[in-house]
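Record type: ASSEMBLY
Status: queued
Input:
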Amino acid sequence: MNTGNDQLAKALRDAAQTGDSIAPTGLIAAIAKLEQPFQALQDTDQAWEIFSAFDKQFGFIRFSFMDNRAVPNTQIQEADQLRYASLLRWLIHELRTLRQVDDERHDKLVAIFVVAQMCDSAGGLWDLLPDHIAENLDLLDYLKGLIASFAVTFNSQPGAQVPIWEGEAVEAFKRADAEDDWLAIINGWRLFHRQPFFPNTLQMQSVRLLYRYSFARLLVGLSKLSQTPVAMQLTVALTVEKRFRLAVASDNPRIQIAALYRTLTDERGPQPLTNFDRTLLTELLLKVATDNSRWAAWMKVFTSYPAINLPLGQALAKVPDPAITGYIDSIRLYSKPIKIDPGRRSVAECLREFRANATPERRKALWTCAHERWLRWDFGRDDPNLHLTAMSWSDLDYALVGYAIECLDETGREAASNAVSAKVQTLEDRWHTSFTDILAEWFRLLSRFQPYGHARSLAMTGDDWLPESRVYFPFEPSQNQYLMVKYNTTWPPTAQL
Amino acid sequence: MSLRNWDSEIARKELTRLTQPNVLGFYTHFEATEVFAFPPGQQEPINVFSLLVAEERLPAAPEKPHYLTPKLIVLKSLKGWKIGIQRYLKPIAELVPAFDALCQSNKWCPSGDQLHTGDLVSIPTQFVRSDDSGTVPLNRVLKNNFWNGSHVFEWADAEKAALQPFFDDPPRLQELSEAVRAIVPLGLASLSDRLGSIIVQLPITVLIAKFAELRASGDFALSTAWHPRATPRPLRASCAMEYDKAVPAFNSVSVEGPQTLLPMYDGQGLHRGILWDDENRILLAATGDMSFISQVVINMQVLDPEPRVFTLPDSNGGEKIVRFGLTPKPIKVTAGEPKSDPAGNWTQRRMYREETDRLLAERRFVQYKPVSGAQFHDKALDDVRYLINRHGEEGVWLWDPFLSAGDVIDTLFYCRFFGSDLRALTAGSRPPTDGPQTRARPSCFAQLRARIRERFVRPEPAPSASAQFATEQRTTLTSLKSNLRGLHLEFRMRAGSAGWGFHDRFLIFPAADRAALAWSLGTSVNSLGRQHHILQRVDDGQRIRDAFVELWDALDRPDHLIWKTP
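Status: finished
Output:
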């Protein structure tokens, strides 16, 4: 069965042959009645009117792109196929010959974009159109300027009584956007994620046209964008691969962050990245990593998305040294119960990729950085409201085992283990303010022992670096029920799988 | 040995017996922590408090005496005194000889240097349990007494003559305690009776014993684990359940393995467990009153991001914005089944009533003495707001003959509970014009009312006094800049002959599933903190609530309504 794009491709092949052109006269007449034709492409109600006018004349085109499962036969009839080709001849001609001086009200451009939008329903139009449209520099220059002028007025529920918190959230977002506070921008944006924020026809077709015919002009146009919401709209006009290409080529940080954020938070559900997407994303991450503060914010925003793990792992192998700290600091440390945990697995996936691509020196640098942060954190020692009541893992465990294996030799590993054992042995020699306090210290020591214990066991077990199926004790637990009962520690020491 | 005539010699023998390996533990050393002081002009230290803890340490453990205070502590509240803390670790074999020396020559010098003590008397050894089932005061000066408990020997200074300055002025003791506590977790201030004492703590470490209720069967059980070096021996565990001063259940069994069941009839009471070593005639573990949770009520709340905001005139003639987050009504989820009483809940209800009576008998009150100026008015309002936000989850009713709109804003508007049933009842009376409160500067609300009157109220034929009062209050409330978020408020007044006159002022907290609470304000809200009055909880809040409801229901005509939230 032919898809909408298949039938579009056939119509374009037909259009390349000599034949009549048919203008969308109903559409043109409807546009002529509008006071501000451009507005119609940005206003849903007005857009409905002119798209309806087009459908009356060429409704088969919309029909041809419908979901085949819902509409069994979307095949275009022979007569309509001829009209389709004639319409495309008109479209190509207009794209080649349109001059702004002849189109002050933008009637023609609006008509072109409506037709293009309908034929582009499956995102295939612009790649199929002929190359020579690129010769219309007048049109390309105009669109470059148009894109640079895109802006949004970002207010909460205009006209309605705005809840105080919502108004404040909008103001905070605007302030963050003006100050390039990337973390606050994304945190603020998340509050509005239920709002439909998609490009309108004018934005979508302008971006797609320029991407196809003048990537350089698209970059120049986008370089002047200073509002993240606009970048969030424009980047979804392109496929994932194209938006990553754009983000890599662009120097506008809003385009870069929007390209990745909209990809990772696609409202239609997670879209798996292709290998080429991943390569581009690695390139993008390497580009951002040269700006240390922006990289740190990016890491805090994006490391929790598993889709980024492989490209990030590759990028970490090559980023400038300071960026390593930004990555490690972005990982949220809190005590994780001894059980299979997607968060730990996600970090481990990234670090496995890193390990496979990084030099030994780079690996040591990252493992050391992780180990130092983990020691400072020490299972929330500085938080007076936090009390460990069980042995715990953390998201950095893969890196910690990496540290024990690659930064310590067997003597070092033994010394690290013995240091914890010695503290366990002398735990009760020290004064504690409460049972909760000593219990927390006990579990902190046992938790601290885990990466060293796992690293020492790997030679015998050949397990993965991420400990998931066993825990370790600085004494033989089966011989020491006394301590186990004393400190409410469960045995046997198997993780909950 | 007579158990009734304790003396130092008996203490010495007991100390010798109990520090033998395998009796209470496997002590190798004792750790001494001595808090000492140099009173003014004195060159030799005196003992403030000393704790010696028997411990099992690694062989190379002994530590020479060293100061935990690099510099002696100087107390601001006790001039000329200097305080220090010394720590050392000695072999356990030196513990009894140290007390021999104390008894024979009245000299305390296990560190090598003499620490002067008062005239010490040995008091009978005590078993001190952990704080697991309620705080034990002596644990404030013991080390890590978290498991089975400890046996404690004490040589007490009955006179405490050298330490008298700390008793003459309690803040000195507080300062001493805080300074010590910053270094060692010893709570001396709350255990001043132990000042001057030397305490020996023998923690029970020969085994670990834990009493618990088995979740599945409800039986009482004891888990034990012997020290790896211990030789297990027969022990006896017993458990008693106490309820309403009676003992409805008791059991005693010999302990023969790591898990020992103590089957008990199910009941309402609290359990007490004891582990007795018959061979050594010594307690090895004991608990306080243990209760086991059979039912938990969880309050779930969906956070409301929207604050309540209202604007008030400030004392400088400007405006101040009051803003705070609201607490939504919780959704109560009950987990587990309560233990049922086959005789019904009559006993529990009687005990609850007795407990409530006891608490009421101990009621605290706040007294406000007349001081000119608004400072105490704000303090008194804060106290009322505290009560509102402490108890007003379901409702807050304010009953005051002089209650005005401004008073309502000052009090009920501050209730943080979303949708709480707020009611205000006034007699529409105006405060006496020559009272002390009117000599003070007009309140913010008086200023606001005056401004509103000037601006909005047109001269017209004089209405009745109560109608005019209602209009003024309504104008104040409707012109208040506020989002009224989560505010469920109704303000009524007594007008005409409906209902009956009232004089007392109450703050009432109605509750659906328990008795209502009520506080007597002692004066009108307008006068809080401005003249002498006492804010106190009244005995029978429920009766006050019922009286309020009776009058409230009688005032249900439109002319009784001043204002209610939309």
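Annotation: The longest helix of chain A spans residues 435-461.
Annotation: The two ends of chain A are 47 Å apart (CA to CA).
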